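Bench notes, afternoon.
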Amino acid sequence: MWTLVTLLALANATLAPTCLTYKGDVERACDAEHLSSMKATDPALMDWLQGSVGTPEGLVLAKELSTKGARDRSLQLRTEARVAGIAACPLADTYEAQAKNDDVKQEVQNLCDAHALLPGGGAAVLDIGAAPTDDERLREISEWSQSLLKTQDVQAIVARLAQTPPRGRGPGLRAEGARSGAASCALADALDRPLPVAAAREASQVLPTFVITSFDSEKTARKYGGAAVEAVRNAGSAVNTCYAVGLAKDPKLAGKVLVHVSLDGSGKVTSAKDDGSTLADKKVVKCIADAASAMAFAKPDKTGVKFTIGLTLAPATSPAAPAVSVALVASKTH
């Protein structure tokens, strides 16, 4: 009569040659989630595998897998299973799916950051700040993402943005980012900001007040002041465009811009530069100085004239407010 001990001994003797083979270790690795009752994302799974293999080659495999990411684990497991003649490898499938999910999360983060690393080094940055319309913003986002972001999930997000009204695009992208674990979404913030053209229209409802000061003499102020005021008044739209760019970044932007202008005898601007402006946004100051360089002034008497254009900029508070308030103040020679 066979005893229980004899049966167990025979079973072990029969199974040992199969279990203590490298193929058996690969099979065990491929079925590790089921055998260990652990998920592939559990760091302890690799420890379990190292303690469960039965051959030196299997231990090397387990240790190598523990040092790799999901994609490389999937590739190595699938290769080893194919060489060993194993048809299916569930753990390789799990790691492949995990790698694809990681790719999507990274590309959603890249989209939110509007920043993607290039294969050869460097980075590609998406800046929609200067786009004049919502359609142009969307076109720039679409072209950038198609060129740099390859996952279908991210392309689907961009496609959904195209089907969303402009005011909902920022919140929609922010929600997509949050679902993928993005803590912030700079591109969504950019979509929330007013368009530069829209900001310019709002600012142009009320032109900023300006005072032309510091003529080189009271006589010059009396004789040429009116012509100077007219030239600045005619350039009001250029000034407001500069200011609108600043308002798009800071709706409360306010302060004084002082631009010292020199004209030759023909009325051509030979110099226009900052003269101690208090406006915090220096890009707006430079933009207005550049606008002053292009202003068309009437021909002054004799050899030319110098004066300072002083602009007091403040956001429009009422469409009914005066369009322009002008005063002339003569002062000492600049």
